[in-house]
Amino acid sequence: MKLYLAARYSRNEEMRGYRDDLVRRGHVITSRWIDKHGGDLSESVAAEKLNTQPGEVVKYAVADCEDLNEADVIISFTSKEGGGKGGRHIEFGLGLAMGKRTIVVGPRENIFHTLPVVEWYPNWGSFIRDAGMGFPK
Q1: What are phi and psi of 34, to 5 degrees?
Q2: CATH code of the domain in which 14 resides
Q3: How many Å apart are CA 3 and CA 65, to the nearest integer?
């Protein structure tokens, strides 16, 4: 299965660990952002750059949309602290609108996480145990 991992950009190292676990279980991860877009983007785009240099940073949004489109499942990693600029919420919403299987791992952060089509797991362990994605029990 092809999976897209959505989370705050600052969690990219953590997401690489989850990616490695999922790849060992036979899945493909389409999220290039977790490898800092090939090492080209060491940290999240600064907010002011979105307004002063949009032509320079749009390539990251395009790549993320391509990766979302390629995936069968969108897994959104949330946290009780929230945070970030919200791109992960856009990714989750796009996946939902595309009719993809959408999963939240962590606390629900907004009303859309309560929709009946959205699967919710409080943490990584419960996701692996209960998601029904061919993981060993």
Answers
A1: -70, -15
A2: 3.40.50.450
A3: 13
Residue range of the domain that includes 102: 2-130
* Identity of residue 32: R
C-alpha 68/C-alpha 1 separation (Å) is 13
The model carries a pTM of 0.90
Those residues with Cβ within 8 angstroms of residue 110's Cβ, 6 or more apart along the chain or in another chain: 89
Q: Are 8 and 88 in contact (CB under 8 A)?
A: yes
Q: Quickly tell me which residue has 């990251």 as its tokens.
A: 60
Query: How confident is the model over 87-105, as pLDDT tens digits?
Result: 899 999 999 999 999 999 9
DSSP code at position 44: P
Helix (H, G, I), strand (E, B) or coil at 61: helix
Q: How far apart are CA 137 and CA 128, in angstroms?
A: 8
State the total domains in the chain: 1
The closest of 12, 2, 3, 20 to 87, measured between CA atoms, is 12
Say if residues 36 and 60 touch (Cβ distance below 8 Å). Answer: no
The 10s digit of each residue's pLDDT in 43-64 is 676 677 788 988 988 988 999 9
